[in-house]
Amino acid sequence: MAYGMSGRIFHAPFLTTNPGFRLKAVVERHEKKAKARYPDIISLNSIDELLADDEIELVVVNTPNNTHFDLTMRALNAGKHVLLEKPAAATGAEVKAMFDLAREKNLHLLIYQNRRWDSGFLQTKEIIESGRLGELIEVHMRMDRYKAAIGVKSFKEKKANAANGLVYDLGPHLIDNIIALFGRPLEFYKTTGIYREGSEVPDYFNYHLKYPNQLNVYLTSGLLIAEHLPGFVVHGTLGSFVKGRDDVQEAQLDAGMLPTDPAYGIEPEGCDGKLVIIGLDNQKTIEYLRPPKGDYNGLFTAVYHTIRDNALYPVTEEHIAWQLELLEK
Question: What is the pLDDT of residue 160?
């Protein structure tokens, strides 16, 4: 595991507090920061050193997007299970090659799609599955940002690098959420744009996905959205549900809160989901519903049971193959 932003926020806090894991080592080529937070950790200078450690069973690949394929193949060939950050790869062919090698080696390749455990998504899923909205007509999911400056991470911003731009950065989150709910779309349309001055890569995208029974799904993200819109909007024949993208986990982890803190994952007051139902008398009923606790630890618990008990990991190979169809087009 690398100990940059992803390692510090999204992996180390769980690998050190979930009883199913022991975080033994990280790779830090330059600054050695991990020991300040985790005194018992071993800080290695190279990936080769990490892969040579026979005690290590699971390797987290959370490096730049364009390195995912090569490092995952190396880890699998070294006999390690892999937890791989999104996007899994740049192409569907690379995804197939990685999963094929994992099967050949009798190892598990597990894709890190943590947004399935966001509070807003969990609540939206709960409302949809309850049937209270009737037959679904339209679903919108968004991840809005305002970041006009070109980012310092060249693997995201340079056209020459594979798996670049906003489509491969935030697209996997939105696409995975929808695949988790509805599976593979019957057809889809993809629109991208470049709006930031000096940008080489798309900084806006919209997907229109079509599903059975005339369900239309829209996924949108942009880096010049000054006024953020609700992250989750669902319309059905009996009502509507609206929820802001208010999950607090990333901010809490960034501030140093551990997943074991009682306040972890709990949205503040005023972030309730809004459920609007039209009754038989055509009267409108409005309910404000507290979202459930968000908890990325659910992903790590799933990783543990997949490796130890051979349980089915919820983010399947099929899900990732479908995702790459949408990303790659």
Answer: 87
